[in-house]
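Supplementary Data S3. Sequence and structure tokens for construct A.
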Amino acid sequence: MVLEHYISELLYRYNCVVIPGFGAFLTQSRSAIIHKDTHTLYPPAKTVSFNQQLISNDGLLVSYAAEAQKTTFEAMLKQVEEEVVDWKLRLQKGERLQLADIGEVWSGTEGKIQFQPSGKTNYLTASYGMSSFVAAPVAREVLKEEVAALEEKTPIAFTPEKREAVAARPYLKYAAVVLLALTTGFTGFQFYKAEQNNQQVVREEAHKQVSKRIQEATFFDTEPLELPTITLKTTKKASTDKAGRKTHHIIAGAFRYRTNADKKIEQLKELGFHPSYIGTNPFGLHMVAYDSFIDAQQALQALHKIKRTQKDAWLKSVR
């Protein structure tokens, strides 16, 4: 049995893994560090250490290995004890135990177990995929010193201006001024045109957002309000009378959640209406009516009256 394999896997998840009768491997998180001499940046990691005093069986290692090998806890505990006995005999002979991905273990003076972590495996899962790299030092001060030394060796010499040469070709100066003015004007016009286009796009996007919010506010309540739970004993009105004529509903709104529909009914009752829940539409929205009528003429009269204060009301007839 390769016991160190299970120890290594557990070190990713736990800060202490005890080998019964032998000791415990401990991990401690450390921050990222930079080596000043080599300019190497090391990511955050977990450092591994060993404590010979922690030998009591906490069941973690044995349970994990037993589950991995599909065996019982007692059988795996026996295997671990046999492995520990073999480790101790090898240490007494002066051998060094090479535990893969963990480190090296040997017996020091007075029988104390010494441990040297390998450092090849980073057990900090938050640093998965990160590796050390060398960052080139910033050379700003070095370049500054080199430039200063160069100026001392080869100073720059300034010669008097030959005004006669400039006077001989004054048209070059005026041509440069005209070219600069044309370039500036063209750049300013392009900037102004781009700015106008950007403002037009922003206005169109704002108009779309406002229209979308108005539609949602009128017909949909996208999020249920955090209200106390209300239990209502209601009965759904029949959609037709005994003669089979149409039942006409003045719709107050359609809601995605039934809780919002019930809240709307309570609000309409407080306003003096006779609201009712009339089921869901083909889109699965819960519909609430201000009032319902058998007679179409009465329904139209009520609709005109309601629309004086409730602009979103509309009439729905059901057979």
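Construct B, processed identically:
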Amino acid sequence: MAVTKTYKLYVGGAFPRSESGRTYPVTGGPRGSIRANVAQGSRKDARDAVVAARKAFGGWAKATAYNRGQVLYRIAEIMEGRRAQFVDVLGGRPADRDAVDAAIDRWVHYAGWTDKLAQVFGSANPVAGPFFSFSTPEPTGVVAAVAPAGDPLLGLVSVLAPIITSGNACVLLASRDAPLAAITLAEVLATSDVPGGVVNILTGDPLEMAPHLAAHGDVNALDLTGTDPADRVALEEAAAGTVKRVYSPGPQDFRRPPGTARLRAFLEIKTVWHPTGAVSLAGGGGY
């Protein structure tokens, strides 16, 4: 007799149980049987994930673009090695094989972006004076994101990858009804050189946890891709209390070929100036 596996959350590079001890069944096995039991995250779990993300953010943001690219490419390599498992988790259909291949390709795509952000989003600004002015992109900080419910792997990767490409840390709420792809991806992240806490994946009901993340003072931005348009107004109002950056795309935005909008959504542009000539060796200023 097969033993039904109970999956846990992914927080701070570890796999803890929900603090409430709650789980819920995921069906879809033979004759509608239970495929697995999944941890049901709570408000406390969301807070713990934010603490882990904030702790990891500084080191990830300061990592070189080359290093971040290597880490993202390693995720693609490990996913390729576990391709059959991901296909099985999604259902084993031909369309699922295509989705897994597309998700792997998307990691490779964003791995190539890590060392190009400064060139594309930065600039050297013309000024009238004896100094240089530069605008450079910097990560926003801790981003809370809701993964699309209808595309549990490619949609999830399309949301997550651009967030961490630019040096942000992420708290990701997985699809409630199809969380197994997200949990399997967490196992990949845990073995692919991603520092613990850079990505935190919570399973359960996003509507239970999202409002607390939207109002959390240590969350810098929200990605509402996987939320129902009817729920977005309340989340945006909660986010306004702490002046969060909010990305609220169309419902099928993640299905389009990746562009620059998601990369730009969680970047801050910092402008600095440096005096010209020998004085520049002594330092500069910024605003």
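The mean pLDDT is 91. The first strand starts at residue 5 and ends at 7.
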